[in-house]
Amino acid sequence: MRNITKTIFILTCVSLSLCLAQKPTLQPTDLVTVPTAGLIPKGSYIAKFYLFQGGGLMGGISVGISDRFMIGVSYGGAQIVGNQNINWHNQPGVEIRYRLIEESLKFPGVLVGFTSQGFGEYIDTLKRYETKAKGFYAVASKNYDFLGNLGLHAGINYNPVEREDGDSDPSFFVGIDKNLNSEISVVAEYDAALNDNASNEISLGKGKGYLNAGIRWSVVENIHLEVDFNNILLNRNQMKYLNRELKISFIESF
Predict the structure, then answer these.
(1) Is the separation of the CB atoms in 184 and 215 below 8 Å?
(2) 170-196 pLDDT, tens per residue?
């Protein structure tokens, strides 16, 4: 019964987005795993649905409280799809974002935030996700009109929570998004993951950082499908192939 309740919670995060018909413009709030300085409009909400390796499933919903402030919650687990015991995440993830500086012609937008939601399976023995959450972060984003929109992003982060592996160094990330036409865009990011490169037996990273990329398709104005290719550098012990993941997102207004 407990597993059924949790599964219903995840699916509800996605199905809520189909209830209303207004379609505000979606800003890129994230690349693959790293945030941007983008926010959804005030009075809007975005629901995201992730399918990842090992039959993993995660759902989340975020709400635009104001034009500068956004909050969100997410939850999921590994082996939900399949016939194995479900490995639920330890607890729901939460996120808070506030845009300090609006983007201008000369200067980037700057956003600060916190998220406890990592990616992949939650490893109970290490008290961490396969890809650690960003924790506290600050990110700057600047958009240019170059054969369609071109967005450049850079940020720093510090995760004080997932430190059971003895590595809690501050880190940084950079990324880019580019519209190819009105429906298709590509995203790429590099997360240095300096808090996941310790030279001990329990560290997952090998010091290369995480290079991820994705292709997004706006099926209609408020429904987006995305195929991601994660860990291209194979920055993980005993890993031979990159991860292929699917993401679906919906945005609506209240």
Answers:
(1) yes
(2) 999 999 999 999 899 999 999 999 998
CATH number at residue 73: 2.40.160.40
Q: What's the pTM value of the predicted model, to 2 decimals?
A: 0.85
Asked if 139 and 151 count as a contact pair (C-beta separation under 8 A), the reply is no
**pLDDT category of residue 82 using cuts at 50, 70 and 90:** confident
CA distances from 236 to 86, 117, 207 (A): 23, 19, 9
Tokens representing 75 are 């939850």
Domain boundaries, position 206? 2-253
Q: What is the pLDDT of residues 112-167, one digit of tens each?
A: 999 999 999 999 888 999 999 999 999 999 999 988 899 999 999 999 999 888 88
CA distance 82 to 45: 30
CA 31 to chain centre: 7
Which residue is listed with tokens 């300096």? 194
Residue type, 107: F
| Count of structural domains, the chain | 1
Q: Which two tokens stand for residue 47?
A: 């629901």
What is the pLDDT at residue 2? 54
